[in-house]
Sequence to fold (864 residues):
Amino acid sequence: MHKESEIRYPLILGNKTYHQITEDVCAPVEGRANKLWYMAFTVAVITAIWGLGCITYTIGRGIGVWGLNTTIDWAWDITNFVWWVGIGHAGTLISAVLLLFRQKWRMAINRSAEAMTIFAVMMAALFPGIHMGRIWMAYWVFPIPNQFGSLWVNFNSPLLWDVFAISTYFSVSLVFWYIGLIPDFATIRDRATRRGPRAVYSILSFGWSGKIKQWIRFEEVSLVLAGLATPLVFSVHSIVSMDFATSVIPGWHTTIFPPYFVAGAIFSGFAMVQTLLITARKVVSLESYITRKHIEYMNIVIVITGSMVGVAYLTELFIAYYSGVEFEQYAFLNRATGPYWWAYASMMTCNVVTPLLFFFEKVRKNIVASFIISIFVNIGMWFERFVIIVTSLHRDYIPANWTLFHPTFVDIGIFIGTIGIFFVLFLLYARTFPVLALNELKSILKSSGDNYKNKKH
Amino acid sequence: MEQFTFSSKLKRTTFILMGVGLIALVLGIANIFGSSDEHHHHLAVARLWSNVLINGFFFFGIALAATFFMAVQYVAEAGWAVVIKRILEALGAFMPVGAFFLILVFAAGTFHFHHLYHWMDPAVTDPESPLFDSIIAGKSGYLNLPFFWVRAILFLGVWIWFWKRFRTKSLEEDLGFDRKRHFANVRDAAIFLVFFGYSSSAASWDWIMSIDTHWYSTLFGWYTFSGIWLTGMVVTTLLALYLKKNGFLPQLNASHIHDLGKWVFGVSFLWAYLFFSQFMLIWYANIPEEVTYFIPRIEDYTYIYWGMFLVNFLFPMIALMDRDHKRNYGFLITIGIIVLIGHWLDTYMMIIPGTMQEHGTIGFIEIGLALGFLGLFSYVVLNALTKAPLVAKNHPFYQESIHHEIH
Fold:
């Protein structure tokens, strides 16, 4: 039995027993949804339908319906792509890196964070897909045997590396998530009273019986997957950053991009986890498991990664000056004072200034403040990608090409629509999946449960 | 044994190493005065001072990294590492000595005893001079002597000041249970890390990147930082194994060693990742302003450059991948020493091509001075280790740490 210092906060509040944990986590799956859920679901479905409509319209008419032009040939779509991929990062970090670091608070949040990852990566993959114009030829991004004429992927292109990085990432995250779910699905199966759900959960749980041997394998495979997924946390967003950094475009080509994008991705991912979980703990009454301390820990991750992003922003600004390269200097001057200064200012305020409030313990522990700041970060990180992509393109080397980007209703509709689809998926998940890793949570009850900790003293 | 005793045999070894260093120093000075023409004189000066900078920075970096790692342990509420905390504190004790050598190099540069930092020459920023360099002149808002000195003193001073505070509170904690001191250190650690985040990058621009004055890379700060972090972890591991092998630190168990092995493994990946990111992006874009850094390194120092990358990347990856290897003293010590030499070469490659162009060599002066610094470093660190009990018994996570067990 591991010792636990008395200065550590309990991670499971209230007088919980093993049975109570099962009851609490299974309640949303077994019970009926409340009004709030139906309201949220309706809004999400309507938004999703609107988004799907805009996507269909784009596919039907071609990407001319977007605001892109010959100078700014990447804008809204790639911003959304990077934003969604970034959000996905927190899930892998929580499931893999925090597992390797033996962080017990991870147990309460990993399931939802991983679900969020899966859905966010789906939303992300949508954008390059529809940007291709002819989505029915999307499989051409894979290096497939060439019967179509002069068609072969360009292995020198970071865009192709992205295809590999993101598909690997998606597969590993999915497997990780699913393996963690197996014992919990089995719990729901064993409790199911109706035949239909029992049959479904019995298939989903792969005949899990909870034998010691199965648990040993479960823990081993979790560690192996964590070891494999940790480099993925780095590789995916590094390669996304290389889409920009391998170019010779001022503001894009900078060596700090890979680690800075990774930090930014974790930053935005944690902000989204925070937004979702602060809501979820209220809606499905999990305040005993996702405690104020959990929120504080996530806020600490947000402030650390946010500070890293801040260091990177200032490093870029400094090196632009220090390099003595006129184009580089202009790119940054234009970002801060050009026609898109408002985007730059929003990015700086939301990503660098507001998270600094988390240096104060009072703010970190305040749930309303945490929620508001998490929204700020979500917005700021969207603007970060917009600033990087659009401000670097809109004034290129030939001043005659200079122009501005104006999103059309289709651009906006697709982006809002993906948020809708994301929430449809997440809300369905919250009603059908165990939203906490209940069996793993039980493993920390005796060392970190409120009642057990207090009993010792 | 709760208290480390610095055996006279070991003391003698450190003195012998320092003696070797002194001989190398004398040889380096003799080289300067014995050089036949101006070109050789210039090279001999650059060689000696470059080596003081390489070793000063390398060993200072270990001390700084140990302090950084300790601060991370505080902020992260890490329990397992309490038993190695005194090792980290003792490593930090080298910071003032390392800082002395860095300041010596900067002062000698300021007074033109050497030209490692050729932007310090007033001629290059003087438009009237035939040596005028418009690119360097464009950087003089940052690269100028007064501002450089303000930064150097500020960074070194604040880092050492924080180390002192951590150490004092940690020793006070030994006298009696007092959570307040622990939490004061947690708060200080957070402030230190914020300061470190900015200052470590700026220091690497000032002290290393400005040698290749024209060149710039936004990743350089983090790249340098990952290298010193790794050497810090390696030295921590080696020192922990040394103590354990000699019967000190009985609380240190196989799980702690396993975790230290993981840190060496993980941080060497981080270093390789940052090396690759910086190199690949510059290679891929192939912009003249940027590739000037890699071309001389690859063309003039092919074997050292690629050799150090491959050694620093492949050795820890292959040898420490296996769980049992991370618990094996022989593996850890061998890999630790190889990686330490590898990262000394990394530091060498950051400095020498900029200061000596294609004329850099590794001879007795290089090896002798490095050994001398190693002797001095070991002496200072081991001496600091004798000054306090080897384990911080009243640390709130002490019980967690001594019962640490992983599989």
